[in-house]
Write a structure and sequence with these properties.
A hairpin with a 6-residue loop joins strand 1 (23-33) and strand 2 (40-45). The radius of gyration is 15 Å and the shape is globular. The termini are far apart. The protein is mainly beta. Strands 1-2-3-5-4 form a 5-stranded mixed β-barrel. The protein has one helix at 57-62, and strands spanning 23-33, 40-45, 48-53, 75-82, 89-97, 100-103. The protein contains 1 helix and 6 strands.
Length: 105
């Protein structure tokens, strides 16, 4: 029987985020990457840079959160869960831009 070997993709587990401490951040998008395995934002909130983990590209597009909407300079509200270790990172459950909410999970 032939053996199929596929490359492993490194990815962090969602258990590193604290779902008991939801967080809402409203800021302007400083940097954005929309892609796989998921999109990422960098936001300045209360004088500190936050890394926001978004959904994969296919889910972002299916929900209408396309790159022409989720772009650098856009005002955004992000709701999600912060990292348990206290680093300035969160996993977004939904984002809101121009009054429209986009669920990501």
């Amino acid at each position: 029987m032939p053996l199929l070997i596929l490359p492993a993709l490194a990815h962090h587990g969602w258990g590193s985020y604290d779902a008991t401490k939801p967080l809402t951040i409203s800021a302007t998008i400083d940097q954005v990457t929309i892609g796989n395995p998921h999109g990422d934002l960098m936001l300045t909130f209360e004088g500190e840079m936050w890394h926001v983990t978004l959904a994969p590209l296919s889910r972002m597009n299916a929900r209408g959160a396309t790159p022409d909407i989720v772009k650098q300079g856009a005002a955004i509200t992000v709701y999600g869960y912060p990292k348990r270790d206290g680093t300035k990172e969160m996993r977004a459950e939904w984002i809101e831009i121009d009054g429209k909410r986009y669920p990501l999970r």
